[in-house]
Design brief:
alpha/beta, Transcription Regulator spoIIAA, five-stranded mixed beta sheet, 5 strands
């Protein structure tokens, strides 16, 4: 499925989303609907991997609130959330540091969400939770344009 804000697909029990721009309230509602439907269909909690292209602008206050809404909603459907903020520019690095810092300050650092530069940072946790080698799963996600 493709819309203007994100791509989403489910591989095994991993729900991948690739954000192409900061989300609107409607985008968050659409993403939550995908999570709910996949959770219901699979009958178990999902593993969320959300990637943000390095060219996506930094979200404004409203868009950050939308992202917080998604993170809170995702807890109903996903046992873990891996957020990948791609890119090596200062802006991308700062985003990773700021999000990680916010998790600690707001005491939401409960091992639910982690922030990475690439999918490789999420691979060990995904492999442990799925109890298998996830290299083929990551390859499919790359082929579908969900992660780099």
């Amino acid at each position: 499925m493709l819309n203007t804000a994100f791509k989403v697909d489910i591989i095994d029990r991993v729900i991948f989303s690739r954000w192409l721009r900061p989300p609107s309230k409607q985008d968050i509602e659409a993403m939550e609907a995908h999570m709910a439907a996949a959770h219901k269909r699979l009958g178990q909690k999902l593993l969320y991997v959300g990637s943000i292209d390095s060219k996506v602008k930094v979200p404004n206050a409203e868009e950050r609130n939308n992202l917080n809404t998604l993170l809170n909603a995702a807890r109903n459907y996903c046992e873990v959330a891996h957020v990948i903020i791609e890119g090596s520019d200062l802006q991308n690095s700062l985003q990773r540091v700021i999000i990680s810092g916010m998790l600690i300050v707001t005491r939401t650092y409960d091992n639910y969400m982690s922030v990475h530069k690439t999918i490789d940072g999420a691979v060990p946790d995904l492999a442990k939770r799925l109890n298998k080698d996830v290299s083929s799963l990551v390859r499919v996600a790359r082929d579908r344009g969900l992660v780099q």
